[in-house]
Amino acid sequence: MKILSSRRKRQGFKEFLLITPFILLVGIFAYYPLYGWIYAFYDYQPPLPFSWDSFVGLKWFRVLFQNKSYIRQTVQVLRNTFAMSGIALGFSWLPMFFAIMLNEIRVVKYKKFVQTVTTIPNFISWVLVYSVAFLLMSNNGMLNSVLMDWGITTQPINFMKSADNMWIKMWLWLTWKNLGWAAIMYIAAISGIDDMLYEAARIDGANRLHCIRYITIPGLLPTFFVLLLLNISNILNNGMEQYFVFQNSWNREYIQVLDLYVYNLSTSKPPVYSVSTALSMLKSIVSLVLLFGANGFSKLVRKESII
Predict the structure, then answer these.
(1) Domain residues for 124?
(2) What is the DSSP string of 273-292?
(3) Exposure b/e, 152-191, CB count within 10 A at least 16 = b
């Protein structure tokens, strides 16, 4: 028994060493920056040393809720954030649908080709995506050239400056970039469904649509609901890279989401680091409450935790 216990300890130590680099990465990039929350409680005036700044308590939080300019901008930003997150949630079934359609491709080479082509965009930076969008949709872009050559328009349309349907356009670019990657988890879930179920269904006369409806979809629903709950708890976290590269003075009213607004506050002239930190802190707290709320709902309905 002592030998087995010693072996288990050595094995556990080896496994701990394997995950140590990832623990360090999480600590450095996720937890260490939380020290910056202290700026929300001080009147931070760069480039003066932080020790010279005066402690103001909850002043900047009160400013966010009392200053009319901040209230108006925050309401506008929350509208954009909830709208874009709502559209994404409304179409959260799309990766599951795509995974099912991909699974139904019987030619293995074509199936791998489609999966590869749809997954590669996930690894392309938003800067390159914007470059492609600019080449296609600027005044001198390919789309305007085609429209004018076909006589559909007589003047070029600058789609990049237009704020029309901005939420839909951002969702389309996001879907193009992430659809293949988001489907991977569903493809893995499909591979975990017992093949005996499909064989038994075919013996009973079920066709491919019946198998999808009564076997594949029910087998994917647990995964779908877990991801849906996680997305709901993450509704305030749109990220900022996509919106940062696409924003301009014409569309900012409709494209500025919460993360981008925090960034813009910290880079404005003059920068308001303390206010942006306070807003970011509030966003993190609300996101944490949503996460635990979604986890509690999962325990209540599914009898399982998602975290």
Answers:
(1) 67-302
(2) HHHHHHHHHHHHHHHHHHHH
(3) eeeeebebbeeeeebbebbbebbbebbbbebbebbbebbe
CB of 167 within 8 A of CB of 256?
Answer: no
pLDDT at 247 over 80: yes
pLDDT of residue 3: 60
Nearest to 136 by CA among 167, 87, 84, 172: 172
The two tokens of residue 12 are 């556990």
> What whole-number distance in Å separates Cα of residue 45 and Cα of residue 133?
39
How many domains in the chain? 1
Beta carbons of 255 and 238 less than 8 angstroms apart = no
Residue 269 sits in a domain whose CATH number is: 1.10.3720.10
Check pLDDT > 60 for residue 118.
yes
CA dihedral 106, 108, 114, 120 (to 10 degrees): 150
| CB-CB contact of 43 with 274 (8 Å) | yes
Nearest to 294 by CA among 228, 238, 237, 239: 228
Q: How far apart are CA 216 and CA 222, in angstroms?
A: 11
pLDDT digits (tens, 9 = 90+) for 41-54: 988 887 777 778 88
- Give, for 195, the enclosing helix (H) or strand (E): helix 195-203
